[in-house]
Amino acid sequence: MGTMKFRVSMVFGALLAVGASGCGDSNTEPPDAGGMCAPGQAGCACIDGTMCQGGLMCEMGLCRAVDAIEIEVTDVNARACEVIVVEEGAEVLGVDFADGTRGTNVHESPRTAVTFTRETDTAFSQGAVTVRRTDSAGAMLSLQRGRCFDREGNELAGSPLRLVE
User: Fold this and answer.
1) d(Cα 109, Cα 86) in Å, to the nearest integer?
2) Ordered domains of the chain (ranges, CATH)
3) 5: pLDDT confidence band, cut at 50, 70 and 90?
4) Which residue, 11, 44, 68, 126, has most beta carbons within 10 Å?
5) Among 81, 60, 72, CA closest to 141
6) What is the pTM of this model?
């Protein structure tokens, strides 16, 4: 019974040490507030779970610097596309689709698969698909693979996709 209490104490102590190690992430340094995170600051909890200060965005409960990159469709005949975006020093936080574009994404770091289609038989407009990522020095996203299809479902030749910062 003594060994069991010792193990439980060790596990509880380790969890307490991890919990007390501060808040912050590898991309941002929280402000020095006596070892505590100030809600709304970089790397700290969001204010009321939704707001941040200084141009930061609340993502997954933490205030982070966020940047957006467009997935541009360069072929006017494209009506649907699929692409794999790879993180290189950045973290994909989400994908947004403009009005008239419907899509979804699956994120498994360091890759994010994105599929999207037009709701009408028209070309994709500028800003139809944007990828939100952490904003840090040297952070990049790249296209690992991508292809688009025309209104008949035929795959388009060439490279109909590119990332635009």
Assistant:
1) 8
2) 24-64 (no CATH), 66-164 (2.60.40.680)
3) very low
4) 44
5) 72
6) 0.67
